[in-house]
Amino acid sequence: MKKFSEQLSSLHYTTWTLIVLFLWFCWGIVLASCENYYNGFRLMNSTLIRHWLLTPDNGFFLLKCWFVGLCILVALLGVNLVFCSWNKILKFIRIRFNGPKLLMLLVHVIFGLVALGHFGGFMLGYKHDNVRLREGQSFSFQNDHEVKVAKIHFADDPVILKKSRRDLTRDEFHYRSNFAEFVMSREGREINRGRAYVLKPMRAGDIQVTLKRFTPSRARGSGKKGGKPGVVVVVSKNPVLGVFLFIYPLMIIGMAIYLVMTWKLPNKNKANQMK
Amino acid sequence: MQNIIYFSYLTAFLSYAAAFALRLLDLRRAEHRVGLLALVASAACLTLLTVSSGNLPVFESFESFLLSAFALGLLGLFRAGPENRIPDTRTWVWLEILILMSITLFCAKSPSPAVYDHNDLFIVLFHGLRIITLSVMLFSSALFIHARVERKRGAPANGTFHKGRNFLVLGAVLFLAAEYVGIIWSQNGWGDFWHWNAGFFQSTLIVLYLMLVFHVPGKNHRAEGIRSLLGCMSGFFVLGMILIRSML
Which of A197, B78, B155, B164 has a beta carbon 3.0–4.6 Å from B150's, enabling a disulfide? Predict the structure, then answer.
C-alpha cells in the first residue's frame, strides 16, 4: 500500500501525466484547426460545458471523447498532487520546517484550487452567449430572472458597425462613450440597473451581463436616422469566479516569493563549483 | 516618419549584428559600445512606433519582436556577468536577438493600426507581459546553453545553471501574470475566462512545458542533462508558440 502511494506521489508519474496532457492539447490544437471541429469548439464556447456534454444529439462525438480524456488526465494529475502534497506535509511534520519548500507546497495546493476553479467554471452556473437585443427588448433566463435593455446610447456613426471589430479605430468607435443600460429583475421585481460598456460588463451579484458588441440598426442604409443599433450580450453566472480571481494571483505571488528566497545559489552547490 | 522608422530599425539591426561579430572577435569594449548603440536605435524605433500609432508597441509582430529584442539586449548587456571564454552567455544573447530581428524582416515595418481597444489596460498588459516573458525566457535559454557548453568543456557551471533556472522561474511568473490579465480581459469582453480555441490551448502548452521543466525527476547527471536541455529550449518554445499564434 505504501509503495502504491509512493508511486502515486512520484515525480515520474507527474512527468508522464504532463507529457500525455501536453500531447492531448497538441491534438486539441489540430482539432481546432479543422473546420468541422472548429464549429464544435464554437458550440462549446457558446454554453456551459455541462450542458454541451449532456446534450446527446449535438454531434461532435470525438470532441466529447477529447474533453472527457482531458478531464481524466487532469484528474490523474490531481491525484498525484494530493498524494505528493500529503507526503510533503508528513515530511514537514517529521523532519523540520523549511521556508522555500513549505511555500512551494502552498503554491502547489493553490494550483490545485485554481484547476478546480477552472473545472467549476465549466460545470457551475450558466451561460447564454450571443443574445441579440434591441432597446426595449428583454431576455429571460434561470430562476425567473430577466434582463431588459432600457436604453442604448451610441454616440458614434452607426455606419461603422458594418466594419469588423479589428478594423474599428479609436477615432471611429469610442468604447467608453457607447453603452447599453440594463434592468435586471427577478419575478418581475427590479433587482439591479446599470450600464454595460464594451470590455466593462454590468454585474449583479454573481450574474454578469457582458456587452460583446453593437449591431447595425434594422433600418436600410443604417444611417443615424435609420434607428438605433442593437446589442449582442452574454448573460453568465460563474459562482466560483470571485474565488478563482482571488487565488490565481496568490499562486503567482507565492512563486515570486519562492524565487526571491531561492535566488542565491545554495552554499552546497557553491562548494561543488569550487571543486 | 516612416523613413525615420526604417532608418532606426536598420541601424538597430546592423548594430546588433556588429555587436555579435565583435563579441566573437573578443573585442569587448567595442562590442559593449555597439550594443548600447543598438539599444538606443531600438528605443528610438519603438518610440517612433508608439508616437505614430498612439499605443504601446506590443500588438503587431514587427513592433513586439523589436521590443522583445530590446528587452533581451538590456538583459544581455547588464545581467550577463563577466565571462572569460567565448562563446559566453552574451554571445548567445546576441545570436537570439539576431533570430528575433530576422523574423521582423518578414513583417510589415509600420506602426500598428489605432484599434479602438488598444489602450485598454488589461489588453496592453497581456501583450506586454508576454513580450517581456519571451525576452526573459530567451535570456534563460542563453544561460542554459552557456552552462551546457561550459560543462562539456569540463568547467564548473553550477552558478550559470542556477541563474538560468532563476530566469526561467521569473519567465514563468511573468507568463502566469500575463495569463491572469488575459483572464480578466476575456471575462470582461466575452463573459467567460476560458475559451476552447487554438490560442488558449497554445498558452496552456507553454504552462505545461514549464511544469515539465520544473518536474523532471531525479538528481543524477542524466536528469540534470534533461532539465538543462528543456531549459535551453524554453525560450525557443515560447517563441515558436507566439509565431504560430500570430500566423493563425
Answer: B155
Q: What is the pLDDT of residues A137-155, one digit of tens each?
A: 999 999 999 999 999 999 9
Q: Is B205 on the interface with A (CB under 8 A)?
A: yes
Q: Mutual orientation of helices A99-123 and A241-261 as an angle, nearest 10°?
A: 160
Kindly report, residue by residue over B190-237, the tens digit of the pLDDT: 999 999 999 999 999 999 999 999 999 988 888 889 999 999 999 999
Multiple choice CATH, A126-240, 2.60.98, 2.40.10, 3.30.980, 1.10.287: 2.60.98
**8 Å CB contact of B216 and A11:** yes
The three three-digit cell numbers of residue B142, written as one number = 542563453
Interface test with A, best of B59, B169, B184, B192 (most A CBs within 10 A): B192
Q: How many angstroms separate the CA atoms of B222 and B37, rounded?
A: 42
Cβ-nearest to B190 among A122, A210, A269: A210
Q: What is the pTM of this model?
A: 0.94
CA distance B76 to B70: 10
B177: distance to nearest CA of chain A, Å?
Answer: 7
Distance CA A158, CA A225 (A): 10
- Residue A198 is given by DSSP the state B
ipTM field: 0.93
Give chain A positions within 8 Å (CB) of B172.
255
Residue B106 sits at the chain A interface (C-beta within 8 Å): no
Q: Which residues of chain A have pLDDT under 70?
A: 1, 57-59, 96-97, 219-226, 268-275
State the smallest CA–CA distance between residue A206 and chain B in angstroms.
12
